[in-house]
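Possible race condition, two jobs.
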Amino acid sequence: MNQTESTEASVVEAAPAEAMEEGASLEADAAEDAGLLSQAEEVRAVYPDFDPAAALEDPLLGALLRGEARPTLRQLYEATHLEEILESRVASGVRERVETAVSEAVAAAVATAVRETEERLLSHIRARGRRPAEVGAAGGAGIRMHPAVNRLTRKERAMLAKRAENGETIQF
């Protein structure tokens, strides 16, 4: 056998081996595709809006499925703890809304209390300004006294005379 014949024989022998490997590769690809299709149906059962074609067009997801990209540790953590992360974010959002509502309610209550107190205080001041001074509340004595009877005015003498006519006893 010369060298040309030997090379041809090796090529002929290698061709069925390559075809077998290629056939096995095609079978593996078909099995992988069938697995992806069943997984796509499972995802669609949970998320009805899921579109496998659109998902494969996504650069990151497509690269991950083709084995061309490796996820970062953060991406892996977020993927495996997604529910916990969402629950904590929802809880913090609810807490923020509750705190905001409480602070707004407290601010409104304080404003109302201040306004009502001011109104009551002004009303009280107005009412006190219209009343006559009460006995004992004034700084001086309850009755006005003249140092001497001879200093009474004509009007005061007439008033005292009228009181005496009504039966009142007048003393100085």
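Job #2 (started ~2 s after job #1):
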Amino acid sequence: MSTRTITRHLLPALLLVIGVLCARYVAPSSPAALAVAETPAPSWYRVERVVDGDTVVLDMGGKSVTVRLIGLDTPEVVDPKKPVQCYGPEASKEAHAKLDGQVVRLETDPTQGQFDKYGRTLGYVFLSDGADFDELMIRQGFGREYTYKKAYRYQAEFKAAQLQAQVERLGLWSVCL
């Protein structure tokens, strides 16, 4: 292969690599661009308050955001229109034990939209150890798998977790039959 052929094929690739490397090290031209470049989008948030087993309030950049957990339904304890349901206090207590004061990762699901009919943000909450809080609550019998209108990302896992809890008669499956 001639030097001319090698140059013709390698030069464009070499220029592309140099361009990419230079772009990574060029300083932004304005303070605003610098702030954006140095501040990645946050994905971890402090739990401000546990409302009940399937609803939490997160501190998202100084703003309190109420999050309704996708795929999880726990017995009611705070709905003024309903009495406290079987295993509701236990589910709420478990949510407090796992979430109070913790930093969690919020994951949304485009199949469910951004908000529910009450204006709450919809998402999954992951604990600092990587565990999916929603699935954990179902697996331990503190809640049920809940599908609202259409399938969601972790539906199969949540249904399997519920089946396991039912078979093992854990939590609400042992007393709320």
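DSSP finds six helices and seven strands in the chain.
Logs attached separately.
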